[in-house]
Amino acid sequence: MIKYLFVTLNSLALFFYSLFLDNGAVTVKGNFPSQIKPGTEVTAELIVTKGTMGGFAKLQIEVPEGVSVKESDSKGATFSFASGVGKWIWTGVPSDPEFTLKLILVADASVSGLKTIGAKFSYIENNNKQIVEMPPVEVMFGDGNAPAVTTSEPVNQPVATTPTVDPNAAKTAEPTPTVSTGDEPNSLVSVIRTITKGATANEWNVNMKIKKDGIKGFARYSDVLPEGFTAKQDKVNGSSFSVADGKIKFVWVNVPAEPELEVSYVLSGTYKDNINLEGEFSYLESNQSKFFKMPAEKLPVNEALVSTETKTETPVTTTTQPVAETKTETPVTATTQPVAETKTETPISEPTAKTGGDVSYCVQIGAYSNSAVTSSKLGGMYGISENIRSEMNSGLTKFMVGKFIEYRLARNHRETVKGKGVNDAFVTAYNGPVRITVQEALMISSQKWVR
Question: Where does the chain hold its CATH 3.30.70.1070 domain(s)?
């Protein structure tokens, strides 16, 4: 009897011991004001619940353009801010199971609209890097007159169909859209594309007015570039304009708050009778990609003004729901000795992806502040024979290998590189020459995340 009692007491002791010492779920959450007046400074908080984990840790916050971060109460961390990213780095994280870090958000006078703020906490557990993300926080900068977002079930709405346009119509003719009843979801979203005569006989002004009905976050409009033609930006409305892979693109990571977007470009080339413009407007809704296909539209002869209204077709909802793997960078101190060697840098070139815009994926193998570290030195250190590219970013020289249009292939290459001893290798993403998060790249290219 005493023996069984002793075993029972031991079991209870072990239970309570594990209960109190269990590391539990590591979390990070934010305490931000819902509205910030441009040209002011406000205090915000990041709250980290870490349990018993200790050692190296990094807390990172990403703020929109026009907003900067200043240090307030950093809990013993080393703070830095550059290019919209604030970082707090601990060699030994605070011992408290939960701690609150305070920061100051500085809003420029020019910033306005609904913006998203993200944060993540990185730490080491069992020699593996772990990442915990804060649920994104939306903050209104300005008076808060943002369009309402409808969360109810879609109802039948009048839908404008593509009107028939006579190419020989008078210059003052305006399109007369035909209205019919339909049951398309999100039928309030529409696109009006207008093509007018340019400055010369071989130029056309192409203008798009997009009624977005409360869409937030990522969106993209693209037209297929006719063969032998060129295009240059006119109105971008906060988007990133590019011409690559045979497409003219306007990409928003976060669309402006106003209910209508207007973008335009100038198309140049020699007119041919068989030239058509084909386009597409896409965006994210409830973490799903929706695509509005624009029907082919004949490029008009410059002697006549042609203005057409194109109502988007029924959106096709993909089932892709990417899981974010956001880039993380653990500062690395080079152990190599400085050498008298000129560092050659091969910049990241324009990706050659045929799908998903200009998105490409690379594998980062290191980030160094030591200028003596070169691509050739890293190649010799890890036995990497493939081309190693480098770029300057956030005050560090970062080294990448590989370039893939599919995230899955980049992930597989990451594992190969780790097998050579680069334990901190991770996947990075680019939209053209611009470095973006893997989550954004997955959304743009409609690909799935692979663990």
Answer: 322-451
- Counted residue by residue, the chain has a size of 451
Which residue is associated with the tokens 């913006």?
Answer: 115
Residue 38 has pLDDT above 80, yes or no: yes
Kindly report whether the global pTM for this prediction surpasses the value 0.70. no
Domain 322-451 carries which CATH code?
3.30.70.1070
CATH, range 20-141:
2.60.40.680
- All CATH 2.60.40.290 domain ranges of the chain, comma separated, are 160-317
Domain with CATH 2.60.40.680 in the chain: 20-141
Contact assessment for residue 384 and residue 378, using Cβ atoms and an 8 Å cutoff: yes
Query: How far apart (Å, rounded) are the C-alpha atoms in residues 311 and 179?
Result: 10
pLDDT digit string, tens, across residues 283-317: 877 656 677 788 788 888 765 434 444 444 444 44
pLDDT at 411 exceeding the cut of 90:
yes
Closest residue by Cα to residue 178 from 157, 162, 197, 194:
162
Residue with token string 């493939």: 386
Cα of 38 vs its chain's centroid, Å: 24
Of 5, 55, 47, 1, residue with least CA distance to 26: 47
| 192 close to 163: Cβ distance less than 8 angstroms | no
Beta bridge partners of 398: 367, 391
CATH code for the part of the protein at 160-317: 2.60.40.290
As a whole number of angstroms, the distance between CA 223 and CA 204 comes to: 14
What does the pLDDT read at residue 306? 41
Nearest to 229 by CA among 299, 160, 305: 299
CA–CA gap between residue 437 and residue 327 (Å, rounded): 6
Helix (H) or strand (E) holding 98: strand 98-107
Greatest Cα pair distance in the chain: 105
| Nearest-angstrom CA–CA distance, 65 and 111 | 8
**Cα gap 374→421, rounded to integer Å:** 17
> Which letter does DSSP use for residue 347 in this model?
P
**Alpha helix positions (H), 138-234:** none
Structure letter (DSSP) for residue 14: H
Asked whether residue 233 carries a pLDDT value surpassing 70, the answer given is: yes
* Separation of alpha carbons 291 and 191, rounded Å: 12
Structure tokens at 167: 């190419």
User: What does the pLDDT read at residue 12?
Assistant: 52
- The residue ranking higher by pLDDT, 164 or 420, is 420
Q: Give the residue with greater pLDDT, 274 vs 28.
A: 28
Burial class (CB in 10 A: 0-12, 13-18, 19+), 65: middle
